[in-house]
């Protein structure tokens, strides 16, 4: 009895996955056709533009946890309040606590820490922060 339930569930799941693959393959075919049209139009305006064009990866979606400008502000505040250099992971853990998120959720914390690292590097470029150390153990402080 339980075997037939498992077989039925797996068959249903396989059918769903095959359906998703068919939809994605259709989208790929449409994208290839669109690219062909764009390239043909480009060659009409510039026949020398036949060389391959490097692919541009789509931008990652914005973090839904933060408002515009909040990430940089959090970094500045954390660096200002710290008595010693702090890591991006420490800032992420505090931000998750402030937002009511589970700090044990490794995927969310890693995503937040990555976004905070980008902001910290921008602050460093602007001369507002400095990096102490290198690699995974790098920490940050105000300049």
Q: What layout of secondary structure does this protein have?
A:
Elements lengths: L1 H44 L24 H12 L6 H12 L6 H20 L3 E4 L6 E4 L1
Antiparallel strand pairs: 1-2
Helix pairs in contact: 2-4, 3-4
Characterise this structure.
- By secondary structure, the chain is mainly α.
- The protein has four helices and two strands, in the order H-H-H-H-E-E.
- A two-stranded antiparallel ribbon has the order 1-2.
- Helix 2 (70-81) packs across helix 4 (106-125).
Question: Can you summarize this structure?
Answer:
The chain is mainly alpha-helical and 143 residues long.
Label this structure with key terms.
single chain, about 140 residues, mainly alpha, two-stranded antiparallel sheet, 4 helices, about 60% helix, flat
């Amino acid at each position: 009895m339980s075997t037939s339930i498992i077989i039925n569930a797996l068959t249903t799941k396989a059918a769903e996955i095959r359906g998703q693959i068919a939809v994605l393959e259709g989208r790929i075919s449409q994208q290839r056709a669109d690219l062909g049209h764009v390239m043909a139009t480009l060659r009409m305006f510039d026949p020398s533009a036949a060389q391959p064009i490097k692919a541009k990866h789509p931008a990652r979606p914005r973090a839904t946890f933060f408002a515009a400008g909040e990430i940089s502000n959090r970094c500045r505040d954390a660096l200002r309040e710290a008595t010693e250099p702090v890591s991006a992971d420490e800032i992420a853990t505090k931000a998750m606590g402030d937002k009511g998120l589970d700090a044990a959720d490794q995927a969310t914390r890693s995503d937040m820490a990555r976004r905070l690292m980008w902001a910290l590097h921008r602050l460093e470029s602007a001369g507002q922060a400095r990096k102490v150390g290198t690699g995974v153990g790098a920490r940050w402080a105000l300049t």
